């Protein structure tokens, strides 16, 4: 089973935000950053340092995998 650390999620969110900055008055995140922000927030609340990749939804899994290829 593969895991993603909270540091990797944070780096991936920052990467996607740099690729597609927030938009609108509400500063809406791009779909990739938004998908990664949900598990990131849960990890913070739960005090988790890593999570299994297979618990991520399809968009979040794709976003982290694309980030890992370039990182």
Question: What descriptive keywords fit this protein?
Answer:
71 residues, two-stranded antiparallel sheet, 3 helices, mainly alpha
Q: What's the short version?
A:
The protein has 3 helices and 2 strands. It has 71 residues and is mostly helical. It has a two-stranded antiparallel ribbon.
Topology summary:
Layout: E1 3-5, H1 6-19, H2 31-46, E2 50-52, H3 58-70
Write up what this structure looks like:
With 71 residues, the chain is mainly alpha-helical. 61% of the residues lie in helices and 8% in strands. It is built from 3 helices and 2 strands. It has helices at residues 6-19, 31-46, 58-70; strands at residues 3-5, 50-52. Strands 1-2 form a two-stranded antiparallel ribbon. Helix 1 packs antiparallel against helix 2 (31-46) and helix 1 crosses helix 3. The longest helix has 16 residues, at 31-46. The protein is globular, with a radius of gyration of 12 Å.
Radius of gyration, taken over Cα atoms and rounded to an integer in Å:
12 Å
Beta-strand level of the residues, as a percent range? 5-15%
Determine the fraction of residues in helical runs and give it as a percent range.
Answer: 55-70%
Mean pLDDT: 94
Beta strands, count = 2
Distance between the termini: 20 Å
Low-confidence stretches: none
Order of helices and strands: EHHEH
Biggest beta sheet attributes: 2 strands, antiparallel
Order of adjacent strands in the largest pleated sheet:
1-2
Q: What sort of overall outline do the alpha carbons produce when their principal axes are compared? A: globular
**Number of helical segments with 4 or more residues:** 3
* Structure class: mainly alpha
């Amino acid at each position: 089973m593969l895991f993603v650390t909270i540091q990797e999620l944070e780096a991936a969110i920052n990467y996607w935000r740099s690729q597609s900055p927030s938009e609108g008055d509400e500063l809406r995140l791009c779909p990739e950053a938004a998908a990664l922000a949900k598990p990131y927030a849960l990890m913070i609340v739960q005090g988790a340092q890593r999570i299994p990749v297979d618990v991520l939804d399809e968009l979040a899994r794709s976003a982290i995998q694309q980030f890992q290829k370039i990182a």
